[in-house]
Backbone:
């Protein structure tokens, strides 16, 4: 995926193998990034989050906790409040337990993180793929094709998509199960991934189209055309490699947006089914109790904020590293 | 949660019985009237009582359309009188007994209770001084038949009056606006001077309770059809107060002042202490709790319409019956009108052993904790709630009825045994519930506890506003789901028939059993009240044993008032404040 071609490839491929001073774009960017302490901290946090998500069940096993086990004995029979300070934080339940059921918050976070990251990462990948391909086609082909794609993108962008996601969740999830996706959470998760990507790609497609419009007039493309290269080769071998920078930046900024959006949607009820849970569902469960057991709201809230902020800062840093001249 | 439940019930077109109930039993949650109250306080007239509500308007103010206990209690105590009414009393028995209100007695009937008569009191007037006549009562009753205009209200007039039905099952009388079949109605309800007579289509031994619901007078000249009672066409009072102004929405108010034409001699029930009532709409429930707990300024004279938020209960109460010192004498915990249960569709889960296995496996303890623990209610042993009075008898459901004692947190092994006995494989079921965070957690408990017995459960959250219309649809409803019901008056004739017969209107289990129907019919028309009570008790037990529904909780709710309002108790008649006898402490 990160087969970023050398900078020289843009114009001087095959001419200068300037081994002495030549560093690949990847190397340059990495060098700049690794000097940026904030970016590195964010990077480490994100790697850590992805690892805990991937190995969530193992981590839960190590701590001997499960997001499904009820701990009725740890709940007050008068109102359902967790017994003990800070929402029932103890050695057995390091982040406390859930109001009313006594399920472990830490375990819920681990499992919720998995679902959130699966949804946001898949949706981002699909968004990037769709946006890039359609953007390149629109930008390079021009004319009628560009016009039609452009109007179509306007149409998609103009949709009140949050409303539509909420309104269509029932019928469309059902439709997915009819075409063979397993009922329940698989179809609900797939639905979220699909709607996020379907309404997300035009933003990237516009950026890509703009880049392609200028790239297609560049000499190396003209040279390729003159040498009789096919359209496919020009698009995907000559032009695409030059788009990785904006795409990468866009992706790192889209991912946190999708994480937040997914949380918002499951807060509003378009999320996974119980007993599974995600950030949004945990926040929805906790709002009623925020003044009595604040930890219940703040713990998932904080993790969500750290996750989103890390992605955003890393995205910013990446943009700076790729284009140090940009002022902001 | 009671409020949403009430809204759900009413949202559904079928006669949504919500009003309610009666006698708090000796054992379970009862009123937490502070023992000291009453000694130092003698009621005094004057002042204003404020009512804080989250709602942005009244659902209904029209006497033929009001159908929730709290509303019936409030309007009944202030501006709307009915033929009979419940006595103000915290006592379970007294507080659910009917006394004459507009009528001079609680009604007389013929030998088989198919004809009931009430004689109106002299000296009862509307707020403009004109007398309340028999014709006004008759006109009020007739409005119920205009189901296209007067909807969502109680429909007992249609069910009980001796008026033939059309082919589609609707009454041949179409109400006073269309006047179709007016002669039929005039025969069923007759006026002879001050005496109104109702001719019924079957024996109704408890008809003098029925007339508390939707049988109040409305003067034809005042009737504005479906707008009656709403801002712009305020309800006309025959009670001690009258509506001065009514505006809806966030910040809206309803103000009631004294009715100068009200004649105290004609009203033995309502002491009418305060000079004014003010209802404040659109108060956020969290803010409401904080304001009442602080009890400053006008909030000293305020009462809560609704319930204390679960997170504040532990601050206000030490247990379900006693308040902490700071809230002594101004918070109350008591039975709400509802019995909670999980209905099981008997057409989809035909095997009774499987249904019993579901009930046995269910971790009712964990579910109760999730909805507030002991504050949420007592464990139910049937659908008839103890506060109904004589129709309740313990069924022994969880002790012996299934053959073994079933612990509150479920018994997966016993459930597995029942599944084995059923001769069927452990079922795969879908659980319907209104989609709220609390219900989502409840669903997780249902899934895990039934899962321990090998029963696979798939959750099916349904948009709360559509919940009942979805689960009543035989195509869309699944095997089991959440439900709740409150009796309309202290007779299980308003519980067993609605829940377990097709004609009843709230048969979520889709039960239509000929033998059971016959027993219900017999109990309904039984004139001997004691025999009738025994019949209801037996049917309640039979329904529990056959597990048409899994009884879960007898709901409790908690509510709060400012420091200067009294008396503080749950009126058993409606599970509400005793509005009609409340006063401002001097």
Residues:
């Amino acid at each position: 995926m990160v087969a970023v071609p050398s900078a020289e490839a843009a114009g001087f491929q095959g001419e200068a193998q300037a081994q002495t001073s030549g560093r690949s774009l990847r190397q340059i960017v990495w060098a700049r990034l690794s000097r940026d302490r904030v970016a590195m901290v964010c990077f480490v946090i994100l790697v850590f989050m992805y690892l805990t998500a991937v190995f969530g069940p193992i981590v839960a096993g190590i701590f001997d906790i499960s997001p499904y086990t009820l701990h009725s004995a740890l709940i007050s029979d008068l109102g359902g409040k967790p017994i003990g300070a800070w929402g029932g934080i103890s050695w057995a339940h390091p982040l406390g337990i859930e109001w009313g059921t006594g399920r472990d918050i830490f375990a819920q976070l681990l499992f919720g993180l998995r679902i959130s990251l699966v949804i946001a990462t898949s949706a981002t990948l699909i968004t990037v793929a769709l946006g890039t391909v359609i953007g390149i086609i629109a930008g390079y082909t021009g004319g009628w094709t560009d016009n039609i794609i452009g109007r179509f993108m306007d149409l998609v962008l103009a949709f009140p998509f949050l409303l539509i996601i909420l309104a269509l969740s029932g019928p469309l999830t059902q439709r997915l199960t009819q075409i063979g996706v397993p009922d329940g959470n698989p179809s609900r998760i797939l639905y979220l991934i699909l709607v996020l990507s379907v309404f997300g790609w035009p933003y990237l497609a516009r950026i890509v189209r703009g880049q392609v419009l200028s790239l297609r007039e560049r000499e190396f493309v003209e040279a390729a055309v003159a040498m009789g290269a096919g359209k496919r080769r020009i698009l995907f071998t000559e032009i695409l490699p030059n788009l990785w920078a904006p795409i990468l930046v866009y992706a790192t900024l889209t991912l946190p947006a999708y994480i937040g959006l997914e949380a918002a949607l499951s807060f509003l009820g378009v999320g996974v089914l119980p007993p599974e849970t995600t950030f949004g569902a945990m926040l929805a469960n906790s709002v009623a109790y925020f003044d009595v057991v604040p930890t219940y709201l703040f713990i998932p809230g904080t993790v969500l904020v750290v996750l989103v902020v890390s992605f955003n800062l890393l995205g910013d840093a990446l943009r700076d590293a790729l284009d140090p001249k940009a002022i902001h | 949660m009671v409020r949403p439940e009430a809204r759900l019930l009413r949202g559904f077109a079928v006669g949504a019985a919500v009003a309610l109930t009666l006698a708090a039993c000796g054992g379970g949650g009862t009123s937490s009237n502070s023992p000291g109250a009453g000694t130092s306080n003698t009621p005094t007239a004057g002042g204003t009582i404020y009512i804080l509500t989250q709602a942005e308007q009244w659902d209904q103010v029209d006497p033929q359309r009001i159908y929730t206990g709290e509303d019936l209690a409030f309007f009944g105590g202030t501006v709307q009188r009915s033929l009979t009414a419940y006595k103000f009393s915290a006592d379970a028995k007294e507080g659910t007994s009917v006394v004459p209100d507009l009528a001079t007695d609680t009604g007389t009937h013929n030998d088989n209770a198919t004809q009931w008569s009430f004689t109106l009191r002299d000296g009862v007037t509307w707020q403009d001084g004109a007398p309340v006549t028999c014709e006004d009562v008759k006109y009020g009753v007739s409005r119920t038949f205009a189901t296209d205009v007067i909807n969502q209200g109680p429909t007992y007039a249609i069910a009980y009056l001796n008026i033939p039905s059309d082919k589609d099952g609707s009454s041949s009388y179409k109400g006073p606006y269309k006047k179709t079949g007016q002669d039929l109605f005039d025969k069923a309800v007759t006026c002879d001077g001050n005496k109104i007579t109702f001719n019924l289509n079957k024996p109704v031994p408890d008809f003098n309770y029925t007339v508390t619901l939707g049988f109040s007078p409305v003067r034809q000249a005042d009737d504005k059809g479906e707008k009656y009672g709403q801002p712009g066409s305020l309800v006309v009072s025959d009670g001690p107060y009258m509506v001065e102004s009514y505006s809806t929405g966030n910040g809206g108010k309803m103000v009631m002042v004294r009715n100068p034409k009200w004649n105290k001699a004609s009203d033995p029930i309502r002491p009418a202490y305060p000079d004014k009532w003010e209802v404040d709409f659109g108060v956020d429930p969290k803010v409401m709790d904080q304001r009442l707990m602080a009890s400053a300024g006008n909030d000293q004279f305020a009462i809560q319409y609704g319930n204390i938020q679960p997170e504040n209960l532990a601050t206000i109460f030490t247990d379900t019956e006693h308040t902490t010192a700071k809230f002594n004498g101004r918070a109350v915990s008591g039975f709400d009108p509802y019995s909670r249960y999980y209905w099981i569709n008997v057409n989809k889960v035909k095997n009774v052993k499987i249904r019993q296995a579901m009930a046995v496996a269910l971790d009712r303890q964990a579910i109760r904790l999730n909805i507030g623990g002991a504050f949420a209610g007592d464990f139910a042993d049937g659908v008839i709630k103890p506060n109904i009075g004589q129709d309740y008898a313990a069924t022994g459901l969880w002790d012996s009825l299934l053959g073994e004692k079933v612990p509150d947190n479920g018994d997966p092994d016993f459930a597995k045994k029942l599944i084995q006995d059923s001769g069927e494989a452990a079922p795969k079921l879908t659980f319907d519930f209104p989609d709220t965070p609390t219900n989502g957690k409840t669903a997780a408990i249902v899934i895990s506890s039934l899962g321990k017995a090998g029963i696979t459960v798939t959750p099916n959250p349904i948009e709360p506003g559509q919940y009942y219309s979805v689960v009543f649809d035989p195509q869309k409803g699944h095997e089991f789901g959440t439900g709740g019901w409150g009796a309309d008056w202290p007779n299980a004739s308003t519980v067993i028939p609605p829940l377990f017969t097709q004609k009843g209107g709230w048969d979520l289990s889709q039960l239509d059993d000929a033998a059971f129907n016959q027993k219900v019919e017999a109990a309904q028309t039984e004139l001997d009240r004691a025999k009738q009570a025994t019949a209801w008790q037996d049917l309640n037990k039979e329904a529990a044993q056959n597990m048409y529904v899994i009884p879960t909780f007898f709901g409790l709710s908690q509510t709060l008032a400012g420091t200067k309002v009294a008396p503080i108790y749950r009126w058993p008649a409606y599970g509400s404040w005793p509005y009609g006898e409340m006063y401002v402490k001097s």
In short: Residues 36-65+88-322 of chain A form a domain with the MetI-like fold fold (CATH 1.10.3720.10).
